[in-house]
Amino acid sequence: MHDNKSYISSFCRIKNNHVTLNGDTVFSKEGTYSEFIKSAYKNLDIKYPKFFKMDRLSKLAFIAANVVLNHENVTPEQEENIAIVFSNKASSLDSDRTHQTSIQNKENYYPSPAVFVYTLPNICIGEISIKYKLYSENSFFIFDNFNAKHLLTYANNLLDTKKADKVLCGWVEYDGNNYDALLYLVGNKGKTEHNTTEINTLYNS
Amino acid sequence: MDALKQELKENLIEQLNLEDMSPEDIANDDMLFGDGLGLDSIDALELIVMLDKNYGIKLTDPKEGRAIFESINTMAAYISEHRTK
C-alpha cells in the first residue's frame, strides 16, 4: 500500500517529429529521426557535445529528460536525489543490430567500441545521470507493452522507502524507424495525481 | 604526409562524431586527449580499430597508444612508418 500521495509535476513526449512539454509543443521538424533529434538538440540549446556520440535510444531519452528536468529547474550544479525508472519493449535492439552488422563478416570484422557500449538499454540512464549528476536508484525494465502499473508501483516504493525524493519515470522506445518517449517526473508536488489512470492517459494521448 | 594528416583529421571527425568540428579546427600538434580535443577512453579504442581497419596496423600493446595518439603529428608519423595498406 502506498503511504503518501504522489504527483506528476511535468511530462515530456517525443514522437511523430514533435517534442512536447506538458502537452504543449516545444519543438517540431519534419525529416528523418536523425535530422529531427539533432535539430531538437540544437533548438533546445542543450550544449553537450557527447550527445553526438550517443546511440539513437540514448539521444531520445536524453532530450526527453532534458526537457523535463530543465522545466523543473534541475541543474547539474545542485545535487538532487532523483531516481530514474525507464522501460521499453525493444531494449537496445537498434544498437544490437548495428553491432551485429559490424561482426557479421569474418573477413571484415571490425566491431566498433563506440557502438558496443550502447548494447544495453540502461546506458541511456547513465548518459542522463552523468549530465545531471544523478546518483540515486535506477532501473530499466523490458515489457511487451507500456506498463503503467509497474512504473507506478516501483516509483511509489522508491518514494515511500525514502530511496529518492523524486523519480523520473517512463517509456523510451526506439526500434527500426519507430520512436516514442514519454518521461514524467514524480514527487510530492504537482497538479496531476500519480496513478495508473493518469499515467495511461498521458501515454495514450 | 600533409595528405595523411588531413585524412586523419577527417576520419577523426567522422568516426568519433566530433560534430561542429572541421579539419581546420584541429592543429597538427593539438593534444587529442585531456585538455585538447577531449577524447575519452572509448574514442581511444575507436582509434585502435581505425589503425587496424584503415592502415592494417594492429596495436598489441595498448600502452603504445598513449604516445601514438598524442596528436595528429604523432599519429601520422607512426602510420607512415608501420602501415601495411
TrEMBL record, chain A:
GO terms for molecular function: acyltransferase activity. InterPro entries: Thiolase-like (IPR016039). This is 3-oxoacyl-ACP synthase.
UniProtKB/TrEMBL annotation, chain B:
Transmembrane segments: none annotated. Gene3D superfamilies: ACP-like (1.10.1200.10). Pfam families: PP-binding. InterPro entries: ACP-like_sf, PP-bd_ACP. Residues 2-83 form the Carrier domain. It comes from the Bacteria. This is Acyl carrier protein. It comes from Mangrovimonas spongiae. The lineage of its organism: Bacteria, Pseudomonadati, Bacteroidota, Flavobacteriia, Flavobacteriales.
